[in-house]
Amino acid sequence: MCKCGCDSCGVNTTPLMLNESLAPKQILSEGLKHHMDNNKPLTEHLYRAGSTNYFNLWAEARSLYSREILEITNEDDLAVLTETNLGHFGILEDGTKVPLDFPIELNEAKDKPLNKPMRDSKGGKAYKVYVKDPKTGNIKTIRFGSGGLKAKINNKKARNAYAARHKCSTRNDKTKASYWSCRLPRYAKLLGLKSNFTGFW
Questions:
Q1: What is the Cα–Cα distance from 20 to 180, expressed in whole angstroms?
Q2: What is the distance, to the nearest Å, from the Cα of residue 183 to the centroid of all Cα atoms in its chain?
Q3: pLDDT grade, residue 9 (50/70/90)?
Q4: pLDDT, tens digit (0-9, with 9 covering 90-100), for 165-179
Q5: What does the alpha-carbon distance between residue 128 and residue 119 come to, in Å, rounded to a whole number?
Q6: Nearest alpha carbon to residue 133 among 95, 99, 174, 171
Q7: What pairs with residue 128 in β-bridges?
Q8: Which residues face 152 on adjacent strands?
Q9: What are 96-105's pLDDT values in tens digits?
Q10: Is 179 exposed, middle or buried (0-12, 13-18, 19+ CB in 10 A)?
Q11: What pairs with residue 174 in β-bridges?
């Protein structure tokens, strides 16, 4: 039956589907089998957030999805798998292993979750974010934003102009300030900015 109850609109309510022509179901972990057998999206996770099984399941799903063995139809699951690195780990300069895109407190200081922008006025910029550098595996600080966009963050025309001017649709490198500047509206509430817009720009 469809989500709306009409049984006729053709909405696919199966969040996870295995392409058994590429791999048998036997390769799946018990956790992933549980989600599939119960039509349960990964964002309604079987395991406790932050546990080893939690990260392993996301990593497994990401690997299978990238090889087109696993089809994901749930929008929230897709967002996690395509827009975050949840399930992967980074190494800090002091050798500390930390999960990516999972809010935690690092040993050397508090309030340093990865990929979570925050206010910071050092270096002449308005914000900063900690990200994993894929080239080194280390965590680096990215400073971005002059604050100029925030005054027009609720102005659709201004957002579109900014996105076009800075070619935001092509900014996909998280280690660059342009990536985070283009996505400033998405993190408005996190940064304490008043906004009713939740998209990227």
A1: 38
A2: 12
A3: very low
A4: 889 889 999 999 999
A5: 6
A6: 174
A7: 118, 143
A8: none
A9: 788 888 765 4
A10: middle
A11: none
- Give the start-end residues of each E strand in 40-122: 70-72, 89-91, 97-99, 118-119
Whole-model pTM: value is 0.48
Q: CA-to-CA distance for 43 and 142, rounded, in angstroms?
A: 28
Cα dist. 117→3, 114, 146 in Å?
35, 8, 14
The 10s digit of each residue's pLDDT in 74-108 is 888 888 898 888 898 888 766 778 888 876 544 44
| Token output for 24 | 């048998």
Instruction: Give CA angle at 193 (190, 196), nearest 5°.
Output: 90
CA 143 vs CA 32, 98, 131, 166, 186: distances in Å: 38, 20, 11, 17, 17
What is the Cα–Cα distance from 114 to 133, expressed in whole angstroms? 11
Tokens 């063995």 sit on residue = 69
Phi, psi of 165 (to 5 degrees): -65, -40
